[in-house]
Amino acid sequence: MTDALISFEPATGEELWRSAVSDVDSEVEAARRAWPEWASKAVTYRSETLRRFVDRVKAESETLADLIARETGKPLWEARTEVESVANKVDISIKAYAERTPNRRIEGAMGLRNAVRHKPHGTLAVLGPYNFPAHLPNGHIVPALLAGNSVVFKPSEKTPAVGAKLVELFHSAGVPEEVLRLVVGGPEQGKALAAHPAIDGLLFTGSATTGVALSRQFAGQPGKMLALEMGGNNPIIVWDTADLHTAAILVVQSAFLSAGQRCSNARRLIVKQGLAEPLLDEVKTLAGRLIVDHPHADPAPYMGPVIDNEAADHLTENFLILMSNGGRVVRHMSRPIADRPFLTPGIIDVTGMAERPDVELFGPLLQVVRVDSFEAAIAEANNTSFGLSASLIGGTPQLYDQFWANARAGVINWNRPTNGASSAAPFGGIGLSGNHRPSAFYAADYCAYPVASSESDAVRASIGVGLREDEGAKLVTKKYL
Ligand code: NAD
User: Fold this and answer.
1) Which of 36, 194, 364, 434 can bridge 429 by disulfide, Cβ–Cβ 3.0-4.6 Å?
2) Is 71 a catalytic residue?
């Protein structure tokens, strides 16, 4: 990493933003100094400050959406939905804080009370991915600040401009500058932040490779919070349905929304043998109609480019590897502009492959597996070390019950895309997809820890058994004022 970090627009290759790389130590120290005062404020104060952040986001929604679209390449309409999610996060987090981490008092005999209250951890590091550069880190930052933590946020090195803009909006809303710090940098700065002795935890969204490295790095430090949101190799099963056209729409949305750059995109279509040909015809036709273009193009595209040429090369190479290992091409993945990372949706039938790689191919690439029985479909769905999202399209309520009971994933949907998740629900996965610290509505759980207190207004105590009968025993019941 050089001393400057430069961000380029994927769609044009033009430079968008540059800044000096941050000094991690000084950013952590600033946040460390600031957190006790922030934690001592009433939660209503912090809520109001964050509501002003919503006002700031709404006032600058078009600027932010434009920046997200330019820096990620995602269509402007989709960037606008990301901005909406950023604004909605505050009310959801306030509700979640109240529901998931409420204060409780349990009255006992003789004025004794047991209380449960929650405390912030202190200073939390947040590492963000590039695919939702505002919404996903925001999903950690808002609940962390609300609970009274200070935060050191390092956006992805591929989307630092959006990260910097997000921090600027928090500061302009009244979040003290030292309470939320920005670290500009790449993996090197991420490692330094994660290893910093003065952080109390790390909230991470990104790839399984990085998540596993962080998990190793945090081994032996049980005192630190580590929340990992990682990738998926998500299955979508299509079973008996009379409406193959709608099934195809759900498959295409699941696989190709955000140019396949969502953790919850379907990577594997598992289909009943008898339905495979007509369904694939529908999916192929629909995929061929998807507009792949610049984020601001008119008519609006369904998909923009992937994040950079390296990612596009990686995907096209993997398509070729699947082909040369027995995959049958349903639809070629192509590069319409040679030097830019636009990709058309690729579909490949890998049923005949002896060994299918269990990796997340983070782009518009769908693998198809045909199966003969529903049991085989579920076994195939679970044939992965990941466990983020899984959908069943078609079938019956009984088959859905069977699917729900046996599918190993943190998000399980029926007749909905794999990427349909409510922010009012927890979001996370098992296996290589997460470490049982789901985010979204349950983010409140990892931003504060519960403290149990037994309390009495008066100093009162007695020892009822096990004392010798002597003068000293009387002292025990004497009240000291
Ligand atoms: P990434 O793992 O490459 O990077 C994520 C962040 O970690 C970046 O800020 C990066 O600079 C930092 N980083 C990289 N290596 C590091 C290291 N060794 N130590 C410390 N920090 C390091 O992920 P990405 O490519 O930016 O994002 C795409 C991935 O994120 C996909 O795998 C996707 O599935 C996943 N994702 C998961 C969710 C979820 O909620 N589960 C949501 C969105 C994206």
Assistant:
1) 434
2) no
250 and 367 co-located in one domain: yes
Average pLDDT over residues 22-28: 98
Please check whether residues 270 and 171 belong to one and the same domain.
no
- List of residues 6+ apart from 290 with CB closer than 8 A: 252, 256, 301, 302, 303, 344, 345
pLDDT at position 354:
86
Number of other CB atoms surrounding residue 300 within 10 Å:
13
Q: Is residue 481 part of a domain?
A: no
pLDDT for res 420: 72
Asked if 224 and 240 sit in the same domain, the reply is no
- The protein residue whose alpha carbon is closest to atom 39 in ligand 1 is 229
Residues spanned by the domain of 270: 234-422
Query: How many percent of the chain have pLDDT more than 90?
Result: 91
Q: Is the pLDDT of residue 475 over 70?
A: no
Residues enclosing ligand 1, CB less than 6 A?
A: 127-132, 136, 154, 156-157, 186-187, 190-191, 194, 205-207, 210, 213-214, 229-231, 263, 360, 362, 388
Q: Is 432 part of a structural domain of the chain?
A: no
342: confidence class by pLDDT, cuts 50, 70, 90: very high
The count of other CB atoms within 10 Å of the CB of residue 274 is 11
> Whose CA is closest to atom 42 on ligand 1?
263
d(CA 12, CA 331): 26
pLDDT at 395 over 70: yes
pTM, entire model: 0.96
* Best CA proximity match to 97, nearest among 446, 336, 332, 392: 446
Q: Are residues 212 and 241 in the same domain?
A: no
Which residue's CA is the nearest one to ligand 1's atom 22? 187
In a domain, 358, yes or no: yes
